[in-house]
Amino acid sequence: MNKNILSWALFDFAETIFSANIISVFFPLIIVSYFGGKSYHYSFTYSLSIVFAIFIGLILGKFADKHGLKLKIFKISILAIFSLLVALSFANNLIYALFIFFILNISYQTALIFYNSILNNLSKKNNISFISGLGVGIGYIGGILALVITNLTQKEPHNILMFTAIIFAIFSFPSLFLLKMDIPKLNMNFSLKSLLKDKTFLLFIISIFFLTDAIHGVIIFMSLYLHKVFAFETGQVISVIALAGIFAVISAPFIGKLCDYIFNPIKSLKYIILFWFFGFLALIISNKYLIYIIGAIFGILIASSWTLLRVILIKISPSEQLSSRFAIFSASSKFASILSPLIWGIITYTFNDSIFSYKLSVLVLSVFPLIGFFIYNKFLENLGT
């Protein structure tokens, strides 16, 4: 396999481990357990860093496209993430830890923008979906490994920071040292404001906002749903999520290959969005035996969605606007990740955290991919596809 493709795909492994270990599990725990902080210290710092990352991403995206610097900025972001992870492992007070994490998360979000944007320069027209799927699949291997690490190191979460830095370096440094390509400077004749007036692009972003809201809902609340509705223990929850991860690993490159040679990825996403709606309905009526099948289906849907979204964005975008458009796409995804927890929280609070409230929350979330489906149809009509 081409060393550029492999080193690029390995970054997906590194960033998934980082996201799972630092953002989702261990750093919030360290804030409370080791530094005597509160959960709101983490949530406020994380939210503020996302706001800064959105604006920095928009500015850097246009600058990088204009000067052909997106690969360099991507590599600088990798170095920043590793260095800040090491610094975080030596943090000895709450303020210092939060400050380092603030910069660390901005660096991480920036790396993701340019990681996705580089796919256009890395691939050819006949293999772009497969390469995208390869990255997603390798990333989910990292996700499964993160589950194992989480299960084995719950008693000493502080030690995981340096361990995560080492794992991140092993799998991201191939991109740092081996990923090489010529990225030309581009003639820029657009403003960020003009992008939002592009009706076709705007319809795509809005439809994907509703889709990613549904995806974030599954990622964030599946473990809680399994525990509350089916009374699953931690081991059973991990089994379902790990099964979903395994199917994601297998299906991502396979679906990418199909969309390179048989199916049109732009048209295919329309049906994947619709399958999300039916997946939510199946989750509501599922039982503790069928839930393993439903989990596998969600793994396929998540992998398919992440595989095709960046491919479609590349296909509908001029090359001189690519990083800027990925920055807007990233901002949309971040805002979508806020909506699911808000809706879930309101419904479960209103109905006293009952099983009924969990199923009602899933039913309400199922509406979002349905809305996304109709808007995506409008996008296809506007695109003339």
Automatic annotation (TrEMBL):
Keyword Manganese attached: no
Superkingdom, taxonomy of origin: Bacteria
GO MF, one example: transmembrane transporter activity
Pfam families per the UniProt record, alphabetical: MFS_1 (PF07690)
Main location group: membrane
Membrane topology of the entry: Multi-pass membrane protein
PROSITE patterns cross-referenced by the UniProt entry: MFS
Gene3D superfamilies: MFS general substrate transporter like domains (1.20.1250.20)
InterPro entries named among the record's database cross-references: ATG22/LtaA_families, MFS, MFS_dom, MFS_trans_sf
PANTHER family: AUTOPHAGY-RELATED PROTEIN 22
Protein name: UMF1 family MFS transporter
Native source organism of the sequence: Hydrogenothermus marinus
Organism placement in taxonomy: Bacteria, Pseudomonadati, Aquificota, Aquificia, Aquificales
